[in-house]
Amino acid sequence: MSASAELTSQDYIKHHLTNLSTGEGFMTVHWDTLGWSVFLGLVFLFIFRSVAVKATTGVPGKLQCAVEMIVEFVGDSVKSTFHGHNPLIAPLALTIFVWVLLMNSMDWVPVDLLPWIISLVSGIEMSNVYMRAVPTTDPNMTFALAIGVFILIIYYSIKVKGVGGFIKELTTQPFGHWSLYPVNFILEMVTMLARPLSLALRLFGNLYAGELIFLLIATIGLYQLPVHFLWAAFHLLIIPLQAFIFMMLTIVYLSLAHEDH
Amino acid sequence: MNINMTLIGELIAFVVFVIFCMKFVWPPITAAIEARQATIADGLAASDRAAKDLELAQEKATAQLKEAKAQAAGIVEAAKKREVQIIEEAAVKAHAEKDKILAAGHAEIDTERNQAKEELRQQVAILAVAGAERILERSIDAAVHSDILDKLVAEL
Fold first, then answer.
1. CB contact (8 A) between residue B18 and residue A55
2. In sequence order, what E strands does chain A have?
3. Would you say the pTM of this structure is higher than 0.95?
């Protein structure tokens, strides 16, 4: 697909890394990221909700079994890490895990397939179709998740420890002497801010790199097929792993926020 | 890396999805799972109980069988004893009967013999009288000598 109008590899990759967007500056909206992520989120909620509505306590169907397996897996992860009582943590972890998993899974869709279909349906030339189908390769997506988690971390830190307790935690460790409290605060702030940053950038980096390699593979012509297959197979590992890591770290961070020293 | 309004949109979507999941997805599914776990636990407990009951019943049945066998053996034993007893009793009765019959036979023989003797005596007396009549012909008066003849008969 790289040969159309002697397009260079660089242009091809750049084209594929451009979002379908409107607006200028901060007011820009990436419609592909937003659209796919909301669509996949609705797919998740629709499937799980339909199971929840029809859930029998007797012998479950196959779909119910699959959904229950995921729910139990997430529930066990939460139970083994988070020891407080908070009805939000488990549904939050489930939403993050399944949603991120679905969004990551869009990586398996061949990079030119969706633009090609859109071009066929709408009649717009492929060089003018912008469609990035993997929302987690957009930092807006991963930062939105990380910031959501970060807000919850701060909210529960203050709720459990109180404002004073939270400030105390930020200033009185690791050094106990009062003159070092500002140093402590700077250190703790770095730790604090590193959490959402690492959450967002880990997911973004992994998926963006994966997407980039897919695009590189797509530029090498006919031999891309076995290489593409190998890279896609490798993503069998990366995609669930990144979803799991994001979920697990969310649980761990919220568990730390609930710990009162 | 361009951060823009998309982030706000995604943040809103995230919040909405989590709230929906928390309100309408997680509770019914976990409730169903927990209810089923309870049912399975009950079922397992019931099957354990049933197994124990079965074991008890088998033990009871074995014990009853043993008892019944012992009873049967006792009954057979008693029956054998009774058999021997009956045979003994029958033997005793038979002996008694035999003795009785023998006694009755003896008694009959005795009476018959006495009767025969009596008849013989009378016939002898008659014969003697007849003989004497023949011998003495008419000279002898039967009425006069009857006392002598009676004496003779009594001596027989």
1. no
2. 21-22, 29-30
3. no
